[in-house]
Specification:
3 domains; D-Maltodextrin-Binding Protein, domain 2; Arc Repressor Mutant, subunit A; DNA-binding; homodimer; two-stranded antiparallel ribbon; 9 strands; alpha/beta
Chain lengths: ~300, ~300
DNA sequence: ATGATGAATCAATCTACCTTATGCATGATA
DNA sequence: TATCATGCATAAGGTAGATTGATTCATCAT
């Protein structure tokens, strides 16, 4: 069914030589020596079994066979050039980000607008799920992960520590005359008191913790819902501070104390080591790090 | 204007891998190892900046980028395959033979018919001229030359020695009661007595030569005309014996003596060393040598 | 004549590619 | 559940083939 392919390196050389009608010029274009061009052409001619060029005094010219072959070769190579270019460019058109649900809804969603402004040609596709993506088997460019920052073969950039701290609405705080010390919180409804984060935080704050229910595993994924309840004034939530800097800035939530708990995790930008220099990844990384920096900077720790 | 070409070796591998959706199968098709395929794909992916395959458990599958690229690559490679195939085949369609005028008209013309019968798909184009073709600057596949058989870089096959000997028509011979010894010729008109071949031949035949006009250079190129005159009974011609074996066989000429002159030349089939194994050249060479052998064999030296 | 240009050739070098060997993950099988 | 089979990735190493640099040769221009 399929005839053999010609030696492709020689084909590339032939194309250049045919276009220039000169081995020397072709060598220049290809960044090699005239000798190498001569060698490759000879090779191709031997494979074909017929000369491709007539060696005239001051220039070479195509034989009939060469004339017949040159346009087809040019077409084929142009096809390849196009396909290659679009593959490289096409890859730049869409950036797929695998993010944690909490990060997507509480941070990325609000900030992506500025990214689009800065890079209007690059569409961002969010892939929101909490499972650990495997870059080798899913079409994902970068991921936001929380954890210790140790993933072999991955390039990682820390976005912020997963510090958690109580949050509540200004209205709720006012209802008891303001929240001035940790003990004040005990007079308010605690949202999801089973979350181990509470235990950790209250002990850091020097408060008794024995009254708290004990339940393994934090409710991480549900932070958005708790925060919503807190903003509605239904109680005090304990959430990752950095994820709600916008709400604090807007006055919808207050962080009454600097005291934070931390279970050793942080949020990270992660992508395969080998793709460090891919344009769209570089662009996103630079933007994200700068944006995170800014969003942490302009909300002082105590915004109450 | 022109974007860069992708690494072509990798492209060839990609095409196979995409078609098979398997690196292992691709490796088989290409006659290399799975490791080599893996290497080339990885190389291409790095150049493109995006994965081309998703590595699923028991098989690989194309990413979006890969899916987009595969058909274009397939098209391009098919173009190349076609161009290559026609270049190889097209070269086989026509065989250009540069021949000496005398050989073309006195030998080739009569024998080419059998070549066409044996190889109906191969058209022979005769390029009849007496100048020494330069294979590097003219589109010629093989040449018939006369000379010493020493041409550097050329493959040569001797067809026959350029023995020359007198020839005349049977009628003319009969007009003097038959030609039995060299001296008998002196009673007949000698065609072109200035040809040095006569001098050489008569001296070999033990006859005086001082009566012959002296002129440098033989009339080689005019042998066909002299032979025609001889056949018409106008005199005795001295010509290259082997070129007229057909006329002897047909009884239109007779070669009265075995005695031949020879100036050291022979007729040769010549072609560039490097093209020894080109199919059409091999075919022509084999046919020509066999045909010459036969044409010399079935005309005994003395056909009078 | 003389020099300039462009290709062929040769020997020496180098490097990109391939192979071998191995490891790893996943499905299939018992 | 343990074992086996399959398929890809990776590392190390060797080699063929490509490339270079120097030279030659032929031709054309001055």
């Amino acid at each position: 069914m399929s005839s053999p392919l010609p030696p492709l390196a020689a084909i590339r050389v032939f194309d250049a030589a045919a276009r220039h009608a000169s081995f020397t010029k072709a060598a220049e274009e290809l960044g090699m020596t005239q000798a190498a061009v001569s060698y490759q052409i000879k090779l191709l001619e031997e494979r074909i079994g017929a000369p491709l060029f007539l060696r005239r005094p001051r220039q070479v010219s195509l034989t009939e066979v060469g004339q017949q072959m040159a346009p087809a070769v040019a077409d084929a190579l142009n096809l390849l050039r196009d396909a290659y270019a679009t593959a490289r460019g096409g890859a730049q058109g869409i950036l797929t980000v695998s993010t944690l649900l909490t990060f997507a809804s509480n941070w990325l969603a609000q900030h992506l607008g500025s990214f689009h402004l800065a890079h209007p040609t690059l569409a961002v596709r969010l892939d929101t799920s909490n499972h650990l993506v495997d870059f080798t088997r899913e079409e994902v460019d970068v991921a936001i992960r929380s954890g210790g920052g140790e993933w072999p073969g991955m390039a990682v950039h820390k976005l912020f520590d997963a510090d958690f701290t109580p949050m509540l609405s200004p209205g709720l705080a006012a209802s008891i005359g303001g929240v001035h010390e940790p003990a004040d919180l005990l007079r308010l409804p605690i949202l999801d008191p089973g979350d181990p984060w509470w235990r950790e935080w209250f002990s850091r704050a020097g408060q008794p913790v024995d009254w708290l229910a004990e339940r393994p595993g934090s409710s991480m994924g549900a932070q958005a819902y708790e925060a919503r309840a807190a903003m509605a004034g239904q109680g005090v939530a304990i959430v990752t501070r950095a994820l709600f800097s916008a709400e604090i800035a807007e006055g919808r939530l207050i962080q009454p104390f600097d005291i934070v708990g931390n279970d050793g995790n942080a949020y990270w930008l992660v992508y395969p080591e080998g793709r460090r220099n891919v344009a769209k990844i570089r662009v996103f990384r630079d933007w994200l790090l700068a944006e995170v920096e800014a969003s942490l900077g302009n909300t002082g720790p105590r915004a109450a």
